[in-house]
Amino acid sequence: MAPTIDIIRHAEAYHNLFGPHVRDPGITPIGGEQGCASLRKKYPHADDVIFIISSPMRRCIETALRGIAPLLDEGQGIVSLLPDLQEVNASPSGTGSPLSKLVDTYGENLEKETVPEDWYVKGPDTKNAPDPDKVEVRAWRARQSIRRATRIAARHHPDAHVVVVTHGEFAHWLTQDFAGITNNRNSAWWPAEFRSYRFADLQYTGDDDDATLVEIDTPESLERRENYLPAADTEERKALQKQIAVLHVQGHARMAEMWAGQELEEDA
């Protein structure tokens, strides 16, 4: 076997119930906590987890800390923050918190040495802006980082698992699989859902500079996907699926102009 990457969408957060006006929301005390409890019950690979890598947004950190970390041995549940995994849009709910505030809340549980204080800035001239080309590059950078971490994990355990916690919309860009996206739905991932992948070329011995992720289509993994939708069977259909995802990001860019004129509450 080879190391596995288990990608998880965060559990239900306040913006899923009340809309995008809440700055960097955490998970909800009912749906969010239940999602984490379900994740703890369903996730079968705790003994093999070497790294937990997460978007630095609160809902992802909390999902990692409450959904996966409790399954691990004491001292192993440290969450490494990777800003490239953050949300796509630039609404208040899609905008993270300064690193210092995250440290105040979750400090001893975070690996954050390479994360800048203002990692979350999403102005039009930044690398995190809701622009389709920038989102695609950000997903590429994230895959490169995860592939490097997975190579390290493989040295410790040949069948290692690396847990990655991110956002529903960004998960499609990360995996390059846009199945299930529609004009009215920007993600086909349920809250707290996880899907398992392996790198096509973990050691990067060939031409896979894209760090392609290949889903592990086992009966068990498909059974976990309550909303499973098959991938497109032609290149034309794949291109159409991606184009719908691009239109969603372009819509976020238009909305970003509106959000830019509003003061965001740091303590929301």
Short description:
This protein is α/β, with parallel strands linked by helices.
Describe, in plain words, how this protein is organized in 3D.
This protein is an alpha/beta fold. It has one domain (4-260): Phosphoglycerate mutase-like (Rossmann fold), CATH 3.40.50. It is 38% helix and 12% strand. It has 8 helices and 7 strands. The chain has a 7-stranded mixed β-sheet, sandwiched between helices. Helix 2 crosses helix 3 and helix 5 (132-156) crosses helix 6. The longest helix has 26 residues, at 235-260. The radius of gyration is 17 Å and the shape is globular. The mean pLDDT is 91.
Structural class: alpha/beta
| Secondary-structure element string | EHHEHEHEHEHEEHH
CATH class: Alpha Beta
Globally, the shape reads globular
> What name does CATH use for the topology?
Rossmann fold
CATH architectural label:
3-Layer(aba) Sandwich
- CATH H-level superfamily title: Phosphoglycerate mutase-like
Sum up the structure in keywords:
268 residues, alpha/beta, Rossmann fold, 7 strands, Phosphoglycerate mutase-like protein
Q: How are the SSEs ordered, and which strands pair?
A:
Layout: E1 4-9, H1 14-18, H2 31-42, E2 49-54, H3 58-68, E3 79-81, H4 99-106, E4 110-111, H5 132-156, E5 161-166, H6 168-175, E6 194-199, E7 213-215, H7 219-224, H8 235-260
Parallel strand pairs: 1-5, 2-3, 2-5, 3-4
Antiparallel strand pairs: 1-6, 6-7
Helix pairs in contact: 2-3, 5-6
